[in-house]
Structure formats: C-alpha cells, structure tokens
C-alpha cells in the first residue's frame, strides 16, 4: 500500500477527515502524480441503485472522471448479502460461478460549477452514473444496511408522509 500511496482514514474521526482532505488536495495539485481512485458510495449494494455519495470526495476541487460500473448477474453474483450468507459461502459462490461479468463505462470528465456546493456536485455526478448504468438513485447511504436508522431520518420521512396524506 505504501508503493501506491493509499490514503487510509477512520471515517468517524473528524481529524482524519480533515487530514485526508488535505492529502487529496496536495495530491491533485501535483500534476506528476497519478489520478486518485475514490468510491464515493463507500459500499456496494445489489446492483440496482446508486446510493448517496459522500461529499468529501467532491469538496477537494479538481476534475472528476466518473465511471459507471454494473455487474451482469447472469453467470455469477458479485454481491455479498451478509445477512443471508457467511463469508465462506460467498467466497465459494464467487469461486465456483461461471464468470463475474462487469460492464464499465468511462464518462466525460466533470468539474464543479460556480455556486455549486459539494452536495449538489456529488448528486449531479451520481445522476450521470445512475443514468448510464440504468440504475435508480437512492437518497441514503450504504450505512443503513449495517446500522439502525436514525430517529431524525424516520421523523423526516413521517412528516413527508403526513403531508401527502
């Protein structure tokens, strides 16, 4: 990892977030360095949707080169549903599948527009990726599959539902 200049951090540590942002800005400023590969969702889901992007990737400036990735499940499923299968079962399924087929689309570079904040820029990039991959966009992040839903999020959804009713 040292030879490829990984930037490791603990997402829950605010100090780490600031340090990572600083390191990424320095990396972007050095034109001799290779581009950075970032997965702004932070996790994978079931190949049908694009989840909320973490805004930190979009706060550092620079040009974003979006890539849409979608697995074709006809020959083997690349996704691990940890609530259904153990890691050993998942590994066995992947290793014994006929093939793991993946479609990859390299999309045109995108830059943050003037007066556009990081969240709106992230959502614009996410929309382009979702459209190209034929996936829907989800307004929540992948942490919901591993954690309890925050009460404030539930209350917000309940208020929206009450307004509809």
Write the layout of secondary structure elements.
Blueprint (H helix, E strand, L loop, with lengths): L13 H16 L19 E2 L16 E6 L14 H10 L4 E6 L11 H16 L2 E2 L13 H14 L1
Parallel strand pairs: 1-4
Antiparallel strand pairs: 2-3
Task: Describe this structure as you would to a colleague.
With 165 residues, this protein is an alpha+beta fold. The chain has one domain. Helices cover 34% and strands 10% of the residues. It has helices spanning 14-29, 87-96, 118-133, 151-164, and strands at residues 49-50, 67-72, 101-106, 136-137. It starts with 13 loop residues before the first helix and ends with a helix. The model has no long low-confidence stretch (mean pLDDT 84).
Keywords:
transmembrane; 165 residues; two-stranded antiparallel ribbon; alpha+beta; 10% strand; phospholipid metabolism; 4 helices
